[in-house]
Amino acid sequence: MQIAENILQTEDLSVFYGNKQVVTDVTLDVPRNHITAIIGPSGCGKSTLLRCFNRMNELIPDASITGKVLFEGQDLYAETVDPAEIRYQIGMVFQRPNPFPKSIYDNVAFGPRINGFRGNMDELVETSLKRAALWEEVKDRLHASALGLSGGQQQRLCIARTLAVEPQVILMDEPCSALDPIATLAIEEVMRELAEEYSIVIVTHNMQQAARVSHYTAFLMVEDQRIGILVEYGESRQIFTNPTDERTEAYITGRFG
Fold first, then answer.
1. pLDDT digits over 3-15, tens only?
2. Against a cut of 0.85, is the pTM above it?
């Protein structure tokens, strides 16, 4: 079977909270094994769009969509699709680190245990922590509380926890906004390494970060009536050096936003 070049796609995607439309007619492709950044000013629908990729918007009362979101060519919102299963295949790392009040080991093992994992848990925990570049820092205190880790370590633990359930896609919603520059660089390096095996979509307010780590960038902005639109989408190098839309250029050069 031929593997599709794009792992996620949206087709004329619009999102509503009750009667209020917040995103309109977004069509884009998310390439496999690349990092795709979503940038734009506050309130343009970046996080809303991201949550559509694993149906987390459904956890918000009165949220609904029109259009399509495709994962591996299949409609994510079809009646036969189990949202819980989708959230394992398309994992999420949130803005602020949210480790469980458990040990480091139990944080990573939590998802696999719920899924009925029958393999070697010690090996899975070690592999996940290594992929998140955290193993060397915690290997001698795996049974200590995760809440004792620094903010950057906690965020890498959350990445390891996501990796442990073996997703295909990792969504990151401003994962470095609560971290210092050193911790941010560590997370960015982890992202680059993970992109060799996983497809990553990151929402970031930091354009320098988007330019550093992403292969593709989508720029959203707000039109009339506070509705988010996709202005431009393409290779990050082109977006940040030679955007085709003057609104994109105005945003990345700081003239608005």
1. 458 999 999 999 9
2. yes
Contact assessment for residue 66 and residue 42, using Cβ atoms and an 8 Å cutoff: no
Q: Are 170 and 128 in contact (CB under 8 A)?
A: no
Domain locations in the chain as residue ranges: 6-100+168-252
236 φ/ψ angles, rounded to the nearest 5 degrees: -60, -40
pLDDT digits (tens, 9 = 90+) for 115-164: 889 999 999 999 999 999 999 999 999 999 999 999 999 999 999 999 99
- Under 8 Å between Cβ of 175 and 202: yes
CA atoms of 65 and 51, how far apart (whole Å): 11
CB 98 within 8 A of CB 134: no
Angle ∠(102,106,108) on CA atoms, nearest 5:
120
Number of helices (H) and strands (E), helices first, in the chain? 10, 10
On whether the 6-100+168-252 domain is CATH 3.40.50.80, my answer is no
Residue 178's pLDDT is 86
Phi-psi sector, 174: left (phi>0), alpha (psi -120 to 50), beta: left
